[in-house]
Every structure is written in C-alpha cells, then in structure tokens.
Amino acid sequence: MSVLLSIRPQYVDEILNGNKKYEFRKSQFKNTDVERVYMYSTAPIKKIVGFFRIKSITVDAPERLWVKFSDKAGINKDSFFKYFGDRPEGIAIEIGDVTVYDYPVEPQDYFPNFVPPQSFCYINDSCLKHE
User: Fold this and answer.
1) DSSP per residue over 87-106, as a string?
2) Beta strands 120-123 and 2-7: pairing type?
C-alpha cells in the first residue's frame, strides 16, 4: 500500500539532499500497511518527483518529536511548531530509501481529475512504480 503526500518544494529538496530524514504529519495513516510514500511537490512544481520507503513511524507530542528529531527534521523550529499548532499529537515518518524520477510525473497522466491531497491520499502501487 502506498500514499501520495503533498510536500512543499523546499521540503522535497531537503529530502532529496538528505537533510530531511523525517516527514511530519498531523494525522496518522489509518491503513497500517503503508510502505511507500510518493512525493507530490506542490506549486510551482506540481509534479510527482519520486518516492521513499517508510522506515518507521513515531507518534508523540510535537514537543517530544522536536526533541527527538530536530537535527534531522529539515525544517526550522518556528515552522515545525506553527505546522502542528495546538495539536496534542504528531506523526514523524522516518524516510528510508529515496527514489527520484528522471522525469517528474504529471499526476493528471495517472489520476484523471487529479486534485492535490490536503495531506495525503491512498493510491494503487502499480500505477506509479518506476523502479
């Protein structure tokens, strides 16, 4: 099972250059079989640029997530806490092996009537595998 995550281009770049080892989310995947995350780089890129495998998922208070992972967060402290707001719980997805597409994918080519997910959406693994 895979998900498509909307990620701002600056954070996609941090993932691709190896500075960002954790992707943070406000809510956990209900399906626990998710193994792969496809990265949709939001405006102005608006393309699926590759994917990564999930090494682990940590659920904890944002304050504790920051203490544990700030050195590998690829995001500054103010942006991190602004993102979580007053939520009591956050999700840290540990980024495993990353695959970058030679040519970013137009989502409309695979998903008719594509609308970028607010956070994430489940997708069929077979439609985007470019390994």
Assistant:
1) -S-EEEEEEEEEEEEEEEE-
2) antiparallel
Question: From CA 1, how far away is CA 36, in angstroms rounded?
Answer: 7
Contact 72, 17 (CB under 8 A): no
Query: What does 22-45 look like in DSSP terms, one character per residue?
Result: EEEESS--S-TT--EEEEEETTTT
Burial zone of 38 (CB within 10 Å; 0-12 exposed, 13-18 middle, 19+ buried): buried
Domains, the chain, in order of start with CATH, read 2-124 (2.30.130.30)
Mean pLDDT of 3-15: 97
pTM of the entire predicted model: 0.92
